[in-house]
Amino acid sequence: MPTASFDTHFEALPSNQPTGDEIRDEILKNPGFGKHFTDHMAHIRWTVDADWHGHQVRPYGPLTLDPAASVLHYGQEIFEGIKAYRHADGSIWTFRPEKNAERFRRSARRLALPELSDEDFIGSLKALLAQDHSWVPTPASASDECSLYLRPFMIASEAFLGVRPAHEVDYYVIASPAAAYFKGGIEPVSIWLSSHYKRAAPGGTGFAKCGGNYAASLAAQKEAAANDCSQVAFLDAAENKWIEELGGMNLFFVFKDGRLVTPRLTDTILEGVTRNSVLTLAKDEGLTPEERPISIDEWREGAASGEITEVFACGTAAVITPVGELVSEEERIRLTAGGNNEVAKRIRTKLLDLQYGRSEDKYGWLTQLA
Ligand SMILES: *Cc1c(COP(=O)(O)O)cnc(C)c1O
């Protein structure tokens, strides 16, 4: 991709109170996740008459929103999650942003929001990084997974309580320095299987990255936490049988014979960029990827027989995380053959080496941001 073409038309309005070097360095030493934000944000406005306009990078700060803004009432909102990685030579790169841009348009169509071009989406990341590049942490070693997490989002800001797609919309990108997502690193996590909550239904918004899906998953997440689980696995709404995904990560199953199975995409599953990348990298690792329905019974039986040797979850924020056990009100499913999570670790290292520029970018997945 000719990345130079995305150096676009964003007006820079630099902050006159940027964070001091010492304070920023202190934050970057231990950023946690999603707690600290950089000095600027990108913004583009859309109106039904003027289309996208007013491209800016301006100081980070509270939004002024009319209390009647429709996002506050009807939840017309979508978002993305993508990271900026600092390479050893100091340059800053992101991973497959055109996939996120395409998904953002898919989400926009489902939520009846206006579509944003690749040029504006990737351009907004570049424009923000042009100001806030010093917020991208430098990894201390190959096992240091620090990055700058970028959060593009779009909201219906028109002050109107009638129910129809908004005529005024705002797009923003904010950025937050991040350490590894789960504190335990690649320790296997326990996952809660929700017995009656569903994340998505056929014809609904499951494939779109929208705030509403997350709002709908929080009661199940609360159940998970009460049962010492860190995430929730959801089954399909129609038959209560097929594995879909976690609240914010896709699932993979490693079989003894080298098959790597992940649920086939439907409109109730969000297509992760990490999922797609794992399917490609798995082939290089001599695995046989399979996208097909996989049931809770197959998980239970495969775990018991040793046919399934690993289960892992994947997403941009936490990369690849082994699943140690599946817990529900009735049972605990543990892998008899489990233990070393060797495949998950191998693919994880491959992916991170690519993202941090430690291996050859043979698929052309990296785009330079700064
Ligand atoms: C964002 C997200 C994922 C992971 O997608 P990536 O592009 O890999 O980060 C998976 N499931 C849901 C529901 C998500 O919102």
UniProtKB/TrEMBL annotation:
Sites of N6-(pyridoxal phosphate)lysine modification: K209
Family: Belongs to the class-IV pyridoxal-phosphate-dependent aminotransferase family.
Summary of the function given for this chain in its UniProt record: Acts on leucine, isoleucine and valine.
EC number of the protein: 2.6.1.42
Keywords: Amino-acid biosynthesis, Aminotransferase, Branched-chain amino acid biosynthesis, Pyridoxal phosphate, Transferase
Keyword Cell cycle in record: no
GO MF annotation list: L-isoleucine-2-oxoglutarate transaminase activity; L-leucine-2-oxoglutarate transaminase activity; L-valine-2-oxoglutarate transaminase activity
Matching InterPro entries: Aminotrans_IV, Aminotrans_IV_CS, Aminotransferase-like, B_amino_transII, BCAT-like_C, BCAT-like_N, BCAT_family
Xref: NCBIfam families: ilvE_II, PRK13357.1
Cofactor: pyridoxal 5'-phosphate
Catalytic activities: L-leucine + 2-oxoglutarate = 4-methyl-2-oxopentanoate + L-glutamate; L-valine + 2-oxoglutarate = 3-methyl-2-oxobutanoate + L-glutamate; L-isoleucine + 2-oxoglutarate = (S)-3-methyl-2-oxopentanoate + L-glutamate
Name this polypeptide is given: Branched-chain-amino-acid aminotransferase
Start and end residues of each stretch annotated as Disordered: 1-22
Pathway: Amino-acid biosynthesis; L-valine biosynthesis; L-valine from pyruvate: step 4/4; Amino-acid biosynthesis; L-isoleucine biosynthesis; L-isoleucine from 2-oxobutanoate: step 4/4; Amino-acid biosynthesis; L-leucine biosynthesis; L-leucine from 3-methyl-2-oxobutanoate: step 4/4
Top-level enzyme category: transferase
Record organism: Vreelandella arcis
GO biological process: isoleucine biosynthetic process; L-leucine biosynthetic process; L-valine biosynthetic process
